Structures
1.
Amino acid sequence: MADFHEFYPLRRHNTFGFDVRARYAAHIRSEADLLAALNDPRAAGLPLVVLGGGSNVVLTGDLDALVLLMEIPGFRVETEAGAWLVTAGAGENWHGLVCRTIEEGLPGLENLALIPGTVGAAPIQNIGAYGVELRERFASLRALDRQTMRFVDLDLEQCGFGYRDSLFKQAGRDRYIITAVTLRLPRDWQPVLAYGELARELEGNAAPDAAAIRDAVIAIRSRKLPDPAQIGNAGSFFKNPLVSAEQRNALLASHPDLVSYAQPDGSFKLAAGWLIDRCGFKGLNDGPVGVYGKQALVLVHHGGGTGTALLALAGRIADTVQARFGVRIEPEPVVL
Ligand code: EPU
């Protein structure tokens, strides 16, 4: 039976550490728990909020909702021709999974080390870092389809992954509750060292294995991203904006140090951190909320503040960037 609470404090369930409450919250440790919670008469008619690690949400106030705290465990390895299939429960810690696979001799997730949050949340924004996106290691996932109340398996194509995007942020928003994810890790593992900073971190190691790459990623992330256990944050707060080659070239002419990355379709991704940094926001504090001093893309909460204050700061940043560069930057986390 799902373990149900009324007026449940969510401060420890969102990495910004905003102090809000849920009208009801249920710990979901199995698919049976999930069905039981959804059928519980106490929460009938209330909106539903699904929380994994709470590392990609901004909670702006108490939630008059049923909050599902996804804690389904599980780890299973199967083999197929040329690859291992690793299935993990939605509630498993993502970084824990990365480390466990590497320790068990199943490389492939090392570039995605230390990303906060759970396995079940990883496909929602198609987590990506240091040259690898989840979709490149994704096989399928299992989810409850709330329209039919049946469990379904969704494959790579059905999940509609894009940069920090998927079916679950678009047409499938509020429709699916992910309970397990299966990753495909090819046996002929190849290191991905395309990201300049990662390659530099590994200089001197001619043939780094997965554990060495994981450790390098951990070192880089620890240097520039705040640990949510110490400073409230949700990683990158803005997505890197995509612009046309024309717009990028015009900006480059007036800002020769502009940081941009060519995309396969000819467009360019701009480093939002660079844009925000150039507007002078890096390290700025506005009472309890602010911009991290080592990476302008990360907004922080020092305690005692609200999601609303954080969003006001984010709006000011986006407006300033737009006025100065003519580019609109969009928030990454889900606002509730
Ligand atoms: N930059 C600045 N000032 C800053 C921050 C960045 O000038 O304050 C410049 C840097 O000099 C660098 C460039 O911007 O040349 C890119 O910075 P970085 O390598 O830190 O990567 P990012 O584009 O800011 C993205 C992801 C991160 C991911 C890293 C590494 C997004 C929104 N963010 O950040 O993801 O870890 O690349 O792959 O795509 C996250 O999503 O929460 C996240 C941390």
2.
Amino acid sequence: MSADFSFLAERPELRFADSIKDARPLILVRPDALEVQLASLPQAQADFVRAQGFGAAAGAVVLLPGATGVAGALLGLGDAQACERVRFALSLAATALPEGAWQLQGDLRQDALYEAALGWLLAGYRFARYAPDAPPKARLVCPEGLDRARLEAMAAGEAFTRDLINTPASDMGPDELEAAIRLLADHHGAQVSTISGDDLLTQNFPMIHAVGRASPRTPRLIDLRWGESGPTLTLVGKGVCFDTGGLNLKPGASMGLMKKDMGGAATVLGLTHMIMQLGLKLRLRVLIPAVENAVSGDSFRPGDILISRKGLSVEVNNTDAEGRLVLADALALADEECPDLLICMATLTGAARVALGPDLPPFYTDDDALAAALSKAAQAAADPLWRMPFWAPYESKIEPGIADLDNAPSGGMAGSITAALFLRRFVTQTPRFAHFDIYGWQPAPAPARSRGGVGQGARAILTALPEVLL
Ligand code: BES
Ligand code: ZN
Ligand code: ZN
């Protein structure tokens, strides 16, 4: 069991510069104000900038020569359209600038400053477990008015999420996922208990057992608790450490990325780190059904009917719709305690991606105030989300007749909605419930997000908490 998560160790690239002393100016400049800016610089510097063809495009950087090396740099803000199109564009400076501390200068609205500072930290993330990948050496001085501890907690939580997703299933099975959770819990003084293997049957988690039993890597339900007082928040995350599809085997091209099928768990755990690191006054519970959806003689089959923890019978019409099965038993347990807020995160459907693409995860809730707070927080935290409906007229699609529920309605129309409706059947007492159908993967490098695992929604939820819970 290896659990090498350096996010718990010092990772200076995920932090701001400690000292403002010797920090060089990083001057923000709009394309339409470039000439005025250049006029204020010494002639030699202005000529140098002009000679480079610097046009202040979003995230473009040009160094300013000084008597003893680099005196500072200009950072382009781009035009309004560029800022709308590219999230975290200014974070390109983090990798473009030489070693040392840098301090932003110039006018920037508070929200843009927040995005720039957060993006800078996120741009420092590297996954170097299997091959060296040196992080950038330029450090930003935390801009005035921003909450340094909060931004650093967000960056560390996001790094944890990415590490968990990027680690291949060979080193991130249910056992290793549990080890990582225990490491996180130890770091913050949280309690962890686990129900695994046949105990899942005796303690009534039949669907977690059914999905995970084909793998020699024991399925389990991991249960973390933290916090003594305050409102109760329960987070549930899909922890399918690898999704072959089961007997309804995925074709090769679709299986390739399925180490990321624990992205819901990873994102929930990144959020858990943020909450604990910031010492929020709430009682937190985190439930992770951790399984591998494998193929063997013991696999659950198409046509099987499972009796869930809640007592609802479920016809398995596709063993590849396994996420909703393991989540249903975990959500039923969460619901028994009736927390003030229940949040579920899962790489649940390909249909969510067809609808909104990899960068904009849908979320579902019946609570309009919660939805409004999440949408506002998503904007503020540079963590986009889009509300989709628990569309009751589609309830009939998940009712197969032979059992209470169908895990994979034929035709697949509205696949993300029917999956969400399926989950909602298991939450009947909790006043506020939200489900996030995330992708958890950055397909191509973008500012502040290298290709690979990525957290989605955690910062938005963290940002919404004061309004909805605290
Ligand atoms: N883990 C997948 C969903 C997924 C696929 C998320 C690709 C992100 C990218 C999930 O277990 C799954 O296979 N869902 C099926 C459900 C269907 C069989 C009803 C899907 O979305 O195709
Ligand atoms: Zn699947
Ligand atoms: Zn899956």
3.
Amino acid sequence: MEKTEQIWLDGQFVPWERAQVHVLTHTLHYGLGVFEGIRCYEDKNGRPNIFRLKEHIRRLFDSAHILGIKIPFPQTVIETACVETIKVNRLRSGYLRPLVFLGDGEMGLAAVHNPVRVAIAAWPWGAYLGEEGVQRGVRLRTSSFQRMHVNTFMTKAKAVGNYVNSILAAVEARQAGFDEAMMLDTDGYVAECSGENLFIVRNGVVKTPPLTSVLEGITRASVLALLESMGVRWCEERFTRDETYIADEVFMTGTAAEVTPVREIDGRVIGEGRPGPVTRALQERFRAVVRGEIQEYRDWLTPVD
Ligand code: PPE
């Protein structure tokens, strides 16, 4: 990863190398923490704008609330700190990573009195699954790891520990020579990928799994709004892995992945084996929106002056 200069830690900026924690940091041992991933894009005037900042910070606080963690700053302070982190590092585009974790103090599972700490880092981050993946589409494999049950982990929280499930799936898929894992829920229906929401297009209708066992993706919500404005029909409905095989198009969405086409699943070619017309139109529109080229969606962007 490309280093930047400063990291916001518990209310102030510290040099990148000095943003360190003790090995007895509670979250390192037990995984109770929450985080966000946010992108910042350069507009045509060369200025950075953060995409859907308020929604991401709202989800950070919601995630903490679900886990019973009280963030010791108001939402507005964290929002401003995100803007400042882009600014002090003189980034025009990049990825922001706010992280809320329990510091050291007590050990054991019920150490609720440890300090709640907040870090915000930012760095440049290109195409998540490679530039070729964005252009040509990626290859998925159904994971042998199920997406966690809604009563095992809290799937609405973007919690640190939840990502053990994602990493098991992502690493398995890559070791088998695929780009990403398609994960099924504990009822056997398609849920999402290790770090992206999943969509299929069939007979002109876009389908994505309902929010029951998937992360409530902010790109997912943005894409649904864009589809609506493009006059494309969509629904939230459960579907099976074999329905993905016979879809005309499949794509994934996420902050890091943006809109990434899928060209193959479990060795079956999807549609024509290249990004289809709905996916391409959506990629184009998403690109224009995040760069501030469509006035209607300017309020999705927070300028970094
Ligand atoms: N599902 C999962 C499990 C997930 O991790 C993400 C984001 C999404 C869906 C899409 O959510 P949203 O970003 O709000 O549209 N995954 C983050 C992790 C990337 C990483 O490798 O770290 C991201 O895209 O930032």
